[in-house]
UniProtKB/TrEMBL annotation:
Residues 114-249 form the ZU5 domain. This is ZU5 domain-containing protein.
Length: 714
């Protein structure tokens, strides 16, 4: 009965909200969601397979380059699916289950019928919406001869905005999705999108915007022509994505929100966590550089929620910026830095439902705000024990590996497609959406791969992408996220499974050398000394003992093919420094570990930005000073390009320096030492190290101050 309620609710939700969320998805994505619904019913395998065959046929037709096949064949397959569902109703399906499936199928058919399609080849052509009753009537694309190198199935369909517009823009028309999304052209193509008039805003102020998923923000597309009689805006573009007319709004000199995120997170351990994220832009920074100057222009950023709940993004403690280091972006030339402000809080209970207002204030007192409604409904975690990784050896041979709590998955290829499967989560009356993330062997904070969201309970990673992100004989981790919305930034609730490990090639997770650290950074020291530093740590098997120089040898190969042997070993870590290199090679560095029995593993670290950070200049306590307090305040000058600092204090005992205090990830340029550290009548020294990132695994460059000495009186 619970499943029956689920499917009836799906239909009601879809139609009560005017197709709401479903319009965010292509017909193919909707078919995949329908396939997921069929699987969740746990029907007799023969019945399930018969239904899925028809849906797979419909999905195949939607990928066809035959226009008639696209519509007629896909709708015929969907009608065949509907006929079978009707025949099963009251026998193998309850009436409510059948009603839910039929409602989803009707929605897909409606979506297909609302799509303008045509096959365009090298000679070019035009595709347009000619149905005068369509909200996007007049939308079109003119593709000139030579813009395409092969035939493509071109589509135009109304789409909900993939992300909410930033607070400095007002919608001036529907979102038009030109497809296939991401298709690029060798010369510009001309698109047209319809707009509606906005009271008080001249038509010449209307512009076209598109959401760049790489930089995570809306970008203006220059308007080349306006047709006020037909209410159409024209532009020349080199790629397909959703395009939307909009008009500037609000104070043009005030900071504004590009996006905000407020999401309740359920973790597999049962704990709760709240993410509050916001991307803020200040207009004074200018296009192209605005992601860098925001901290200098913003005075405060806070969120106010129900019951006078207020949360401040405290500058220094919770303001966080990072480089997005997804491997796919590196390989595809899309390694785009972006600034985000991030706060997370671990909670024992869910965040209250209700309205939350984000407010930003700049140093001139100008403000901007946006209100989000949070509906807390915790989503269950995907059970990691249900995750399967399948090797697709050929079209007819898919081999799914069984997961072992002790050993994970082993023997995965890096030259074949991989399929990752999991059991669905049952989320009351709602549909869950999923994405899969893959990480290297020791860092679960930064994924090297993240899939698109899907309503299905499996994804396939193509052989070409597998070859880009995975190395032979290497160890990785993955988990599956579940979301309550098809667009991540609109989600209210999410969860994630526990991590599962897998190995490629011949690696055994129980006894092979496995990296628990591998990194390349620049180190800048006083007296004009600098180096490129390689560090690595290796364990015997997952979670096993640290291996030393008598058990394993470590080397690293740079992007230019040059190899370095890590011959030094200190406190469990191998390292090698290259003094004053003539140049720095940015890109992927491949570390290799070989044990005494010839077993070898690899790990790739990305060195993205090479620069010598200036040295921190110490201010107080002064060099040689006698400090008449046991809780002195250490201060130093800010370092250009540094995001955080580490403070080290050492005490002289005999002729040895011993660490008495170490504080990492300081975001201000002063720190007061707590009591109980210093003693009277002792000699001390202190040093500051600067880092170019808040996240340890993202650090590419660091610099070190001189040591300054001080003493305490008897």
């Amino acid at each position: 009965m619970k499943q029956a309620v689920l499917f009836v609710s799906i239909v009601l939700i879809i139609f009560f909200y005017g197709l709401g969320q479903a319009l965010c998805q292509t017909p193919s994505q909707l078919v995949i969601g329908l396939m997921s619904s069929v699987r969740s019913l746990k029907l007799d395998p023969g019945i399930e397979n018969s239904l899925l065959v028809k849906l797979k046929g419909a999905n195949g037709a939607l990928s066809s380059l035959n226009v008639n096949h696209y519509k007629e064949a896909s709708i015929n397959k969907l009608n065949a699916f509907k006929n079978e569902v009707e025949a099963l109703a009251g026998k193998f399906l309850t009436e409510d289950q059948a009603k839910g499936l039929l409602g989803q199928a009707d929605l897909v058919i409606k979506r297909i019928n609302g799509t303008a399609i045509d096959v365009i080849g090298i000679s070019g052509g035009i595709v347009e919406i000619s149905d005068t009753s369509s909200p996007i009537y007049g939308a079109s694309v003119l593709i000139p001869s030579g813009a395409l190198s092969s035939e493509e199935l071109i589509t135009i369909v109304e789409e909900l905005s993939p992300e909410p517009l930033p607070t400095n823009l007002t919608s001036a028309g529907p979102v038009v999705q030109f497809g296939p999304e991401g298709l690029t052209f060798s010369q510009p193509v001309t698109i047209s999108v319809p707009y509606y008039e906005i009271s008080g805003i001249p038509e010449e102020k209307l512009k076209i915007y598109t959401f760049n998923k790489t930089s995570n923000r809306f970008e203006e597309v220059p308007v080349t022509r306006r047709d006020p009689e037909k209410n159409l805006l024209y532009a020349e573009v080199y790629h397909f994505s959703p395009f939307q007319p909009a008009a500037p709004s609000g104070d043009p000199d005030a900071p504004y929100f590009v996006w905000t995120i407020l999401v309740n997170v359920t973790r597999p351990s049962g704990g709760k966590m709240t993410h509050r994220n916001a991307l803020v832009i200040h207009p004074q920074c200018g296009e192209g550089s605005d992601v860098y100057c925001v901290p200098d222009r913003i005075s405060s950023l806070k969120v106010t929620g129900p019951g006078e709940l207020t949360y401040d993004f405290i500058k220094g403690d919770y303001w966080f910026d990072a480089f997005n280091k997804y491997v796919l972006r590196d390989f595809l030339g899309r390694d785009v830095p972006f600034k985000w402000y991030y706060a997370q809080e671990y909670r024992a209970e869910d965040l209250p439902s209700g309205e939350y207002t984000f407010e930003v204030t700049d140093i001139y007192g100008k403000k901007s705000s946006i209100t989000r409604t949070l509906s807390v409904d915790p989503i269950p975690c995907v059970d990691s024990a249900t995750i399967q990784i399948c090797r697709i050896l050929d079209e007819s041979n898919t081999n799914c590996l069984e997961w072992s709590q002790a050993n994970g998955f082993e023997g995965l290829p890096t030259d074949k497609p991989l399929k990752i499967k999991w059991d669905p989560v049952f989320y009351g009356e709602k549909i869950a959406y999923y994405d899969v993330r893959i990480y290297n062997s020791y860092d679960s904070g930064l994924p090297i791969y993240r899939s698109s969201l899907t309503a299905d309970t499996e994804i396939t990673i193509s052989a070409s992408i597998v070859g880009r992100i995975l190395l032979p004989n290497a160890v990785y981790q993955l988990n599956v996220f579940a979301w309550d919305d098809y667009t991540r930034n609109n989600s209210h609730n999410r969860s994630h499974s526990s991590l599962v490990r897998f190995a490629t090639g011949s690696v055994s997770l129980s006894n092979f050398p496995i990296f628990s650290l591998a990194r390349v950074v620049t180190n800048h020291y006083p007296d004009n000394y600098y180096e490129l530093l390689y560090t690595a740590q290796v364990r015997r098997g997952v979670g096993g003992p640290i291996m030393g120089p008598n058990e394993v040898s470590i080397s690293a190969t740079g992007p230019d093919g040059s190899a370095v042997q890590l011959t030094n070993y200190t406190s469990g870590t191998f390292w090698q420094a290259i003094p004053k290199p003539a140049s720095y090679q940015t890109g992927g560095y491949i570390f290799k570990a070989v044990d005494n029995e010839g077993r070898e593993t690899y790990l790739r670290d990305y060195f993205n930005k090479a620069r010598l950070l200036p040295l921190p200049i110490l201010i107080s306590p002064n060099n040689g000073e006698v400090v008449y307090t046991l809780t002195p305040t250490f201060s130093w000058s800010p370092v250009d390009g540094a995001k955080t600092y580490h403070l080290l204090v050492e005490k002289l005992e005999g002729n040895q320096w011993q660490t008495v205090f170490f504080k990492s990830w300081l975001n201000e340029t002063e720190f007061t030492l707590p009591g109980g550290i210093l003693e009277n009548g002792k000699t001390y020294r202190w040093r500051i190290r600067a880092y170019d990132s808040y996240a340890d695994s993202l650090v590419d460059n660091r610099s070190n101050s001189v040591y300054w000495y001080f003493s305490t009186p008897q």
